[in-house]
Known about the structure:
By secondary structure, the chain is of the alpha+beta class. The chain contains 12 helices and 4 strands, in the order ααβαβαβαβααααααα. Helices cover 71% and strands 8% of the residues. α2 runs antiparallel to α7 (159-197).
Amino acid sequence: MKLNLITPAADRRLLDDGRRTRAMTWIMAIMLFLTVLAAALGLATLAGASVLDRQITGRLTVQIVDANDAARARDTQAALEALHHAPQVARASEVDRAALAAMLRPWLGEDGADPDLPVPAMIDVDLKGGDEASVAEVTRAVQAAVPGVRIDRHERWMAPISSFMQIIIALAAGLVLLMATATATVVVLAARAGLDTHRDTIEILHMLGSTDMQVARLFQRRIALDTLVGGAVGTIAALAVVGFVGKRLASLGSDLLGSITLGSGDWGVLVAMPLAFALLSTVAARYAVLAALRRYL
């Protein structure tokens, strides 16, 4: 199928209603603005979900709760030795008390740094694999060395956040598909309206020997150009919004929110959307016009 987005001057004189009076360009600008925002949300959330999955898969936290400092230190050392000897463990290290105090400060204030406060000892563990068998083996080894130890799996308590992010990704993908469908529908309606408006002109073209395909090309070029121009305007506006929101998220200092970013490939997908929608509009206009010409003319 031959695509030509440059409408010759004769075609514009033949079918154009006047660029200022056409709403097609602005409709497409709005369509692309919303579509690019939805796509950016989905792509950024997908990147954040991937980072989250890498961070929580195969990660454990071992907590040793004992009010007696000496007993807590002894149990911590025993747990570390058991972890270091476990073949499933890639890394195990005790969390510094200063780091724990910083984590507790929002709730306890400066009392979180009080040396007399019985803060549990915590050990961060990275496993070589995140399968259930590895987790069970490590859990048994640590509990055998330190009975009553508490082991938390990051994947378990972060699962609701991961599930929510997957819902956001699916919702964004659905919105993009919905906007693409709406765009094709608008193009079909615009093409049919153009046929009704220029019915007399099209009949004269047929009498002069023009084929249905030649008439369809007049409409598809015009609609494709309107889509490309309007889509470029909408995409530029959407990218400006995405850049602003991205900077605001980065300034929050949150590791999770900071991971919701767009890579170079994601930006390329967003920039290519006006071309994709122009192609979609061209195909929709061609088949709509050809179907209408065969039916009515």
